[in-house]
Amino acid sequence: MKQKTCIIIDDHPLYRSGISALVREGLGLECIGEVGSLQEGRQLLDTIDPTLAIVDISLLGESGLTLVNECRLRHPQLKILVVSMHDENLYGERALSSGANGYIMKHESPDVLLDAIKRILHGKTGISENLKQRMADKNLS
Fold first, then answer.
1. pLDDT for 47-82, tens place per residue?
2. Of 89, 41, 93, nearest to 66 (Cα)?
3. DSSP for residue 65
4. What is the C-alpha separation between 107 and 123, in angstroms, rounded?
5. How far is the C-alpha of 84 from the C-alpha of 76, rounded, in Å?
6. Bridge pairing between strands 52-56 and 79-84
7. Three-state secondary structure string covering 104-124
8. Beta bridge partners of 123
9. Is the Cα dihedral 12, 64, 46, 96 positive or negative?
């Protein structure tokens, strides 16, 4: 079975480094690439085939959701977790509509991030309980 791997696309080097260490230690995922822009993300995805991409919604004035949309067409098997400082009530559903497999706010605990990644790797949606409830309530109305 192929080793599960990830890439991180975020414009903050310290955050990328921390997430890389966290997923390696917490889940045994090998981080095979870290980049800071939309263009670098495109180039990286054209040269390697990771299992998971962790994508910031805000990339140096560009939207990470643009990359998520592109990935659905060009890399349909890729699992994608969008991370952001922006409120999940505003952007969580947008990220999922764009094709992301999950959305986690950057202020969440490492355990919440790791749980979201585990869920995504098992074919489920990786979102907070709050967003899950909000979406369920919206579907019931």
1. 999 999 999 999 888 899 999 999 999 999 999 999
2. 41
3. H
4. 24
5. 22
6. parallel
7. EECCCCHHHHHHHHHHHHCCC
8. none
9. positive
